[in-house]
Batch of 2 targets.
Target 1
Amino acid sequence: MSQSALSCPKCSGTMELGFTLDRSHGATYSGQWVNGIPKRNWLASWLDIGMCQLPPAKERITIGTFRCQSCGFLESYACDEFKPT
Ligand SMILES: [Zn+2]
């Protein structure tokens, strides 16, 4: 994934790199992509809520999201280069 010279497919504006923020119980994360559909953990099944199992780290890929500075359009990519530093 090349970060250079991305232009917005909607308005040709300049795209800037960022990430989607995920917060839970006092922790802050960057979004991650996982193949397949989420599997509920035992507590989520028991309570019928949306929590899911945490897949192994090797199966999760950090998502980088580009935002158009003109119209706000978002375009995301799942690549290892977007891991938090
Ligand atoms: Zn745009």
Note: The mean pLDDT is 89.
Target 2
Amino acid sequence: MKTVTYSKNIFIPVTDLCRNRCGYCSFRKDLEDARLISRSQALRLMEEGALAGCCEALFTMGEMPWTVPGFSQILSAGKASDLMDYLVELSELALEHGLLPHTNAGLLDEDDLRRMQPYNASMGLMLETTARLEAHAHSPGKDPQLRQEYMTLAGRLRIPFTTGILVGIGESRQDRLDSLQRIAHLHHELGHIQEVIIQPLDPKPGTPSAGWLHPAMDELCQTVEAARCILPQEVAIQIPPNLVDPLPLLSCGASDLGGISPVTSDGISPERPWPREEELREKLKGYSLRERLPVYPRFISLGWHGSRTHRLVASLAGSDGLRAKKYIF
Ligand code: SF4
């Protein structure tokens, strides 16, 4: 029976201020509306997550918010003086609550990436695409070259890494193949890619993407099949079960459902509820649904997960490297 994995997580939106303006984003806020999550809000989520048996704290934020004029006011309103210090503080809090941090903070410089590494079981950054698209015309951080350089740096630092591509943002089929080939190349070179997300566009009202089309299922199936051919077998293909019916894509080669939360909504698409575990089990009869940690078993064996996460990983992982304990949603 084919195994399908997922991670039980909580989503922690550290800040929604972002220097980019991607054409499909409803997460980012302008300075007047942007916020930094407070310690008490983060703590409450972590307590709820721990109670619900989660094992991952997914830290997400807009990219390089410190380059947006006025960010210092948001920081000081949140009683923080430095965003990286604050991230470290929240990561330590997560570990104290039995939650393994996985941070996707957009592009970081090498010092900041090195700073975050010990506290993270794994880290992530979507490549999205190697193409230069209108959707990224106002997003300097979506320069494909910069993102590949960041992924290379993460590989050199031996950080277990999650990346992925977006489908339906104006890229061509060939662009998708090129993007997957670039990811495969990086993995062949550095060996750090644990999973690749095939993420369909979810057009958001009030954004330029509002009138764009959801990618069709046959397009997604072709993309997953191509990904399975291009990427080494050890790299999992992830699909988000709140955005797309997972069944056809699992039969095309996907094997992971990503983070699913019994506590928080999908912070990027909050209007798309997570399926409940029992619904998934019913839907995925014929597959063995297993919970995993935010770091894949191979990287636990290699010891690549952050040094401060080792003790917690050892207590959460079973002999096969997936999650040992079984909790009910
Ligand atoms: S980088 Fe992320 S948060 Fe910023 S605008 Fe783009 S999608 Fe939104």
Note: The chain is about 35% helix and 15% strand.
